[in-house]
Amino acid sequence: MSKSYYDSFFNATGDVFKLLLDLEVTRAGEHAADEELQNGVQIQIGVTGDLTGAITYRFPKQTTLEIVRIMSGMDFNELDAFVTSALGEVANIISGNAMTMLSEQQLTCDILPPRVALDEAKAGHTAHVVESTLLQTAVGPLELEVALEPAV
Amino acid sequence: MLWKDKYNIGVDLIDRQHKELFDRVGSFMKTLRSPDHWEEKVEKVNETLAFMQEYVVVHFRDEEKYQQELGYPGLAEHRKVHAQLIRDVNEFSRQYQAEGYREELVQQFGGRLLAWLINHVAATDLKIAEYARSKEGAAQ
């Protein structure tokens, strides 16, 4: 996989976290340990166009609740419909910004609506090449998985 | 309080309207997230929802008028973003009514709207301010 696919999503994640949450995002490792991401939220966004595959964002429960608390100024205890939907929109915004970055490399792609799942095993995808990285923020970790390949 | 000073774009009318919009979304969320049973709060939720929806339309109209007067080159794209949100809100309202004011639907809508609004004001609308400043700089 061209590293630049991944970089677009990593950079977009950093930009959106800074803008919406005033949080810095750093790379913490190549793979996330499953226990770090248990009991959390998984958001998968399909990609079509010059590239096909999916982007998956995995947020532990505590990271999720803190993100929504920062945005709303309200405390949340459970991963309910409001919380998961807010996080799905954040992932949607990140992915949309990454599409703009990819377009600067002459790659025209569209994203599909976010699919939100709670505490599930890692979702499957059809792309053969995957780059998955654990990211760190002041409110906890998240995992970014980019599974994209050129459309045939 | 959802509003942050960093969202100010430096145009009095638009900044006042953004604050009002954040206030209305804040009231809607406060009612939506109150610990009362759904049956006890659904009427108030619907009132604050309608109050907020009305204001979105007023604000988008005024903001587009300002962009037109400014000669903002991103107006057509900005209009599309506003129109898409209004379509989404209308579609949500139709479904919410059709399904008998189901709580889960409006909770989902509230979460999505919160993230959308912050991103729109903090990212998209700030580009208008950058353009206005660059135009002022060029005129001096």
Q: Give the radius of gyration of chain B.
A: 17 Å
CATH topology of chain B: Four Helix Bundle (Hemerythrin (Met), subunit A)
The major sheet of chain B is characterized as: none
The figure for the number of domains of chain B is: 1
User: How far apart lie the N and C ends of chain A?
Assistant: 15 Å
The count of DSSP E runs of length 2 or more, i.e. the number of strands of chain A, is 7
Structure class of chain A: alpha+beta
Determine Rg of chain A (CA atoms, Å): 14 Å
Task: Supply the CATH superfamily name of chain A.
Answer: CheC-like
CATH architecture of chain B, please? Up-down Bundle
Counting DSSP H or I runs of 4 or more residues, the number of helices of chain B is 4
What is the top-level CATH class of chain A? Alpha Beta
Give structural notes.
The complex is a heterodimer of chains A (152) and B (140). With 152 residues, chain A is α+β, with helices and mostly antiparallel strands. Chain A has one domain (3-150): Chemotaxis protein chec. In chain A, 36% of the residues lie in helices and 31% in strands. Chain A is built from three helices and seven strands. In chain A, strands 1, 2, 3, 4, 5, 6 and 7 form a seven-stranded antiparallel sheet that branches. In chain A, a hairpin with a 2-residue loop joins strand 6 (131-137) and strand 7. In chain A, helix 1 packs across helix 3 and helix 2 (61-72) crosses helix 3 (81-103). With 140 residues, chain B is mostly helical. Chain B has a single domain, classed as Four Helix Bundle (Hemerythrin (Met), subunit A). Chain B is 82% helix and 0% strand. Chain B has helices at 12-32, 38-70, 75-98, 103-139. The A-B interface holds A 16, 19-20, 68, 71-74, 80-90, 93 and B 1-2, 26, 29-30, 32-33, 104, 107-112, 114-116, 118-119, 122-123.
